[in-house]
Please model this.
Amino acid sequence: MKELIAKIVRIFLLMSCKLVTGIQARWLTEPNNYRCKIYYANHSSHLDGLLLWSCFPKYLRSSIYPVAAKDYWGKTSFKRFIASDVFNSVLITRSPNCRENPLSILEDLLTKQQSIILFPEGTRGDGQHVADFKSGLFHLAKHLPNVELVPVYLNNLNRVWPKGSKLLVPIICSAVFGLPIKPLDETETKESFLNRAKQALEELAP
Amino acid sequence: MIFTDLDLQLLLACIFTLLIVASLIGQLIAKFKCNNNNRKMIENLNQRINAWWIMSIVLLIAILIGTIGTLILFIFISFFALRECITLTPTQLGDHQALFWCFFILLPFQYLLIGLNWYGLFAIFIPVFGFLFIATRIAINGDTIDFLGRVAKIQWSMMIAVYCISYIPALLLLHIPNYEGQNIKLIMFLVIVVQLSDVLQYVFGKLFGRHAIVPKLSPNKTVEGFIGGVLSASLIGALLWWITPFDIWQAGLIAILMTLLGFCGGLCMSAIKRDRGIKDFGTIIEGHGGMMDRIDSLCFAAPVFFHIVRYFYT
Model:
């Protein structure tokens, strides 16, 4: 029963999003599920994770998990239902003084050949600039050298639902899926890796 | 209506016969004349024909449902057109609330007025009240950078995508003596003449086009295409007099005016696209680009057509 409701809500929300944003995906490499991947994108709106996830072909969606913040999406059972049941999200804690490693749950998924969607800026930006990345992406790349890192540039989403607004405005959005970045070099420092990843993302901006 | 109106049935039969013929020719060309040089053009031709099929079928469904169906169809057309216009103008955060009003309050209200048959307010709602409201709503936010430019862009989008387009279903409001309940055929007359003029201008341009009309703006709009398209579409318009309340010569004259206005609309929209450095407004209709790319000529023709019919025939 819960699954059926989740499915109906999912179809409804995906169709509404499509109507509002007309999201267009542009792939520089075709999606496939032969290798697990981390799709990382710029973050400027609540809709980011959902819209990025909706760009994948239906048969891949169940193996791709958008990463969402537990302190926001885990607050009420309704939000948890929307995040986990409807949109296949995995919730992680953002607070730094937490005893368990917040990344271990993601590492579990990735070792099971699943893919994740990550917003390495950690929080939503203004849509004009990509903020500096948090270190999570670096740790994942270090622990799981086989995982491909694919930058995805989301365009216009901040105009649809900017931070701090309660109103949605229909604007056509696009998502550009780039080529996977070069894997982490053993001698590479955290700063240089994160800068390189950020640069690869910024290069996809139209 | 569709079941009792012989003229309408004949017209629909003509349209779908034309589409079948076009599809057959398109397939034959693709099969026998296709080589590497013209593959792209032939692919685009067939995409366009397929899109015409879908557009005709959508229009037919809207007619079958009746006035409500037609209104809903044009609400969506306006919505998609407005979405494309707003997407390509760089709006600011300060415009956000005004845009929300445009999409979700002003647009539906304009069509509601048509549904309520309220001509007096429908004709002034966006040019007067919308005009004043949009500027005020943006001013309240206090973001004054490029204020006039931002306001003008939103107002223009509203005028073109909502106000002008809403004149097409508004044709259903008109009470024309001896033509009651047949107004849907006026819509079809307008749409067929203007769209055929586009198609024929393209065809004549491809066949005989040598001299660009506005070379800086578009190399595809040629004098030869323009003359051939306008004349042939107007001739077809005259020959469609039997679906309108006009005489044959009146239908021809009105058709000439519509095709000229359609050309003006296409020209202005091309200027916007050229300025923004884009080729198409969107990708919603395969082969044609965006909604705005398809209806640009109707935007200019529809209000004038409505007022001509209203002034001389009601």
